[in-house]
Amino acid sequence: QARIMESGGGLVQAGESLRLSCVVSGLNFRIFDLNWYRQAPGNQRELVASITSSGSTNYADAVKGRFTISRDNKWNKVYLQMNNLRPEDTAVYYCRIGNFWGRGTGVTVAS
User: Are 25 and 3 in contact (CB under 8 A)?
Assistant: First the structure.
């Protein structure tokens, strides 16, 4: 059974940075594409960034140039470096691998 745990969320001011982490167990981590999603209050969950098993990345237009996704296959971790945060980035951020989801970590960006 896969276990996924996100961490690193918090309250920051606009323009500041956060680094989210997601640790995965119970899966052959290195063969999976990895994804970060977010869901703001009243909104649908949306894909923020993804990284394939070979390391190719893709980003939502809203975060291009500000967010960076990376993975560490040795430690079964995926990261989301978020720079120049904006109030509209406020959401719960979720890690997804295959059909498995973490419980999310909250990010609040104050203006």
Answer: yes
